[in-house]
Amino acid sequence: MQTEIQLNRIQNKFLRSVSKRFFFQFFLFVKLPAAWLAGLNVILLDVQKAIVSVKYKWLNQNPFQSIYFAVLAMAAELSTGLLCMMYTQDENLKISMLVVGVQASFFKKAVGVNRFVCDDGVKIFNAIEMAKKTREGVTLELKSTGYSAQNEIIAVFNFTWSFKVK
After folding, report:
1. In whole angstroms, what is the distance from residue 27 CA to residue 61 CA?
2. Residue 50 CA, distance from chain mean position
3. Rounded Cα gap, residues 13 and 146, in angstroms
């Protein structure tokens, strides 16, 4: 069963601002400077999916001529976190979000342009709605899969997020 998601005014504003490269890069520069330096970019953000890219370059390399694993983790986390941030935007409630666990598996060297895809938007929406209704903390495991330019899986990350209405 597919959930029909209607974004509120603040969520729509967040979605529009993330979709504008200048505003998002400014956000990274101010709030996540390591992600800005690493060269993370948002390819897509909608109600169901987020795609974040990272390109191999001198600043994010490891000694093995590939992207350092921590940079891959930043891109993967951002692909889940953008969806979480969007759905925690509320006019009347403050909702906290926090990564409480992470697990990763790596399959290929990350070189060139790589993208991380999280398509758990509906799952996130439902979990946050549950937190709003119950006023209890909710934890949720979200998956981000990393792909090379050749569409090969390079890594899979599972992040456990916690949401709570303050």
Report:
1. 23
2. 6
3. 27
What's the rounded Cα separation, in Å, for the pair 69 and 147? Answer: 14
pLDDT tens readout for residues 78-114: 999 999 999 999 888 999 999 999 999 999 999 999 9
Cβ atoms within 10 Å of 9's Cβ, excluding its own: 9
* C-beta of residue 97 within 8 angstroms of C-beta of residue 163: yes
d(CA 125, CA 110): 31
Q: Per-residue pLDDT tens for 35-44?
A: 999 999 999 9
Ramachandran bin of 117, using left for φ above 0, alpha for ψ from -120 to 50, beta for the remaining angles: beta
HSE of 66, CA atoms in CB hemisphere, 13 A: 14
What DSSP state is assigned to residue 39?
T
Domains of the chain plus CATH, in order, are 9-165 (3.10.129.10)
123, with CB counted inside 10 A (0-12, 13-18, 19+), is middle
- This prediction has a pTM of 0.93
H helix or E strand, kind and range, residue 117 = strand 113-118
